[in-house]
TrEMBL record:
Name this protein carries in UniProt: Glycosyltransferase family 2 protein
Pfam families reported in the protein's UniProt record: Glycos_transf_2 (PF00535)
Native source organism of the sequence: Paenibacillus thailandensis
Domain Glycosyltransferase 2-like: 7-175
Length: 261
């Protein structure tokens, strides 16, 4: 039986995290999970307290709340979880954002029928046939579709989403930390796509639902777009040298880890 870790990056999600935990406990996926870690990235609200209450209320005994040693961004939180998954001999790791935009149940078939075993990464897509995006603005949908096309051309792979909040990875594919010097911000997922394609990892995009109702977006749309465009152009020109020959972080962090609470 595969050992599967679910990690939930959480930052200022006090209004959403209880719903996320409730959905996980009620989903068909829960029985397949060996452990759930909710990684708080130094939230400034009551996210930790609300997460703990939701765990107790829903009798979600596989879950616990931990806290990054410092605010390391969304990308840095991935690195903390990946490191934990490798060190603790998990076979697969799932990421589900704590803002209740994605739904773990969308991966029920992938997990219950063990479809994930065919791939190094199963990546949730908000923009392919079978997906749904209630509340998502048409402007942002259009922008994502444009960038999906651009990245497909640059990576020479069909890309359906640059980075949703529901993905599943084979831990063996993460054991060599090729991603360690990728940005610690929201662009981490785009760099992961470039890394996957450079390493010829087997990718599967899978349609998911994505709701955007009471979320407070952390995306600085235009600055992120500018940053991502520059990165993609450099990758197009220099390929592996661009990915592996430099540190893409704005701050050097020696080790990514979280502390128990």
């Amino acid at each position: 039986m595969d050992r599967i870790l679910l990690f939930i990056p959480m930052y200022n999600c006090e209004n959403q995290i209880s719903r996320v935990i409730e959905k996980i406990k009620k989903s068909e996926v829960y029985v397949f999970l060996n452990e759930i870690i909710i990684i708080d990235n130094h939230s400034k609200d009551n996210s930790i307290e609300n997460a703990r209450r939701a765990i107790e209320k829903n009798d979600c005994r596989k879950a616990r709340v931990v806290k990054n040693h410092e605010n390391v961004g969304l990308g840095g939180t991935h690195k903390s979880a990946f490191k934990y998954a490798v060190q603790n001999n998990f076979d697969y790791v799932i990421v589900l954002h704590g803002d209740d935009q994605g739904d773990i149940s969308d991966f029920s078939k992938v997990i219950s029928e063990r479809e994930y075993r065919k791939w190094d990464a199963v990546l949730g897509s908000r923009f392919m046939k079978g997906s749904s995006t209630p509340g998502y603005s048409k402007f942002r949908i259009f922008g994502n579709l444009v960038f999906n096309k651009i990245v497909s051309i640059i990576t020479r792979r069909k890309i359906y989403d640059l980075g949703s909040g529901l993905n599943m990875y084979r831990v063996n594919a993460l054991s060599e930390p090729f991603y360690l010097r990728y940005p610690d911000n929201l662009v981490f997922n785009v760099y992961m796509l470039m890394g996957h394609t450079s390493l010829s990892h087997k990718l599967k995009f899978y349609p998911i639902s994505w709701r955007e109702e009471d979320q407070v977006s952390n995306v600085k749309l235009f600055s992120q777009t500018k940053y991502m465009t520059k990165s993609l152009l450099l990758y197009l020109v220099k390929r592996n040298k661009f990915l592996n020959g430099r540190d893409h972080r704005t701050k050097t962090i020696e080790s990514y880890y979280f502390n128990e609470l």
